[in-house]
């Protein structure tokens, strides 16, 4: 759809001040730079919308919004269907997912080595290199202002689904203990249950963020996805792992509150 140019005017690396959202579609990845289109897609990520609702949210003339919708549809980012209450109207929806965003204000200007660290052969830790590789990729993207949180969350959810049988337990306390044991055995961090009503987990030495720059924002999208999938399976209904503290926010641990659909924060109890 839209492509950045480098300082010499050739297609390539985005301009330093360019904000871009990257969407996956059935036809491949699509980059969206135009702020009006980004606003439209942000609204559609929340829910499906009618044309009139999109016009109101975008704050642009109907003719302008219509052109943007046509281009987004042609790129395969959105689709539409007739409104069941009025066949003359259309309801618009996303056909893909937000994969990443390039946001100049989130660029990390510090030296990569300060956060990526060094690999020391013979350290005796078989997981050290893989943690280093994950951290280096993450910080390299942060230096460019690229946020992969949506993609990392979905990857975490997939992994959580695969992991669930290995940690499943009918009682919530035992379930949390199994998760903590798995985290420690695989050098992912140390998990403690800080509160039971609601259920709050603390993660120390978190593999995902312990060495990341302090940005003031949560950084554990991958962990959030894993925990979301695990507790959704455990409680038998959609759950969220809401990160309220993180190493990247200046804390010495990460803190997750487990929120379950229809019940707010979930208590640590045996599910009925």
Automatic annotation (TrEMBL):
Transmembrane intervals: none
MF term (GO), any: DNA-binding transcription factor activity
Pfam families referenced in this protein's UniProt entry, alphabetically: HTH_5, V4R
InterPro entries listed in its UniProt record: ArsR-like_HTH, HTH_ArsR_DNA-bd_dom, NO_sig/Golgi_transp_ligand-bd, V4R, WH-like_DNA-bd_sf, WH_DNA-bd_sf
HTH arsR-type domain boundaries: 27-108
Domain 4-vinyl reductase 4VR span(s) in chain numbering: 198-260
Listed name of the protein: Helix-turn-helix domain-containing protein
The organism's taxonomic lineage, starting at the top: Archaea, Methanobacteriati, Methanobacteriota, Stenosarchaea group, Methanomicrobia
């Amino acid at each position: 759809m839209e492509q950045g140019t480098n300082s010499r005017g050739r297609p390539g690396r985005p301009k330093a001040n360019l904000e871009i959202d990257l969407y996956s579609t059935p036809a491949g990845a699509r980059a969206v730079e135009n702020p009006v289109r980004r606003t439209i897609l942000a609204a559609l990520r929340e829910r499906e919308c009618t044309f009139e609702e999109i016009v109101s949210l975008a704050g642009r003339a109907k003719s302008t919004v219509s052109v943007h919708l046509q281009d987004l549809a042609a790129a395969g980012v959105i689709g539409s269907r007739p409104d069941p209450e009025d066949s003359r109207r259309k309801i618009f929806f996303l056909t893909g997912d937000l994969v990443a965003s390039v946001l100049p204000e989130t660029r990390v200007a510090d030296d990569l080595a300060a956060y990526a660290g060094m690999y020391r052969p013979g350290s005796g830790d078989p997981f050290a290199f893989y943690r280093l590789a994950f951290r280096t990729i993450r910080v390299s993207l942060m230096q460019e202002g690229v946020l992969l949180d949506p993609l990392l969350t979905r990857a975490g959810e997939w992994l959580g689904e695969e992991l669930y049988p290995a940690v499943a337990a009918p009682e919530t306390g035992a379930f949390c203990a199994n998760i903590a044991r798995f985290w420690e055995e695989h050098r992912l961090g140390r998990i403690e249950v800080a509160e039971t009503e609601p259920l709050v987990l603390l993660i120390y030495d978190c593999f995902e963020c312990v060495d990341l720059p302090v940005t003031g924002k949560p950084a554990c999208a991958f962990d959030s996805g894993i925990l979301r999938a695990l507790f959704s399976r455990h409680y038998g209904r959609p759950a969220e792992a809401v990160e309220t503290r993180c190493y990247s926010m200046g804390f010495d641990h990460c803190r997750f509150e487990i929120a379950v659909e229809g019940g707010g924060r979930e208590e640590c109890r045996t599910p009925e």
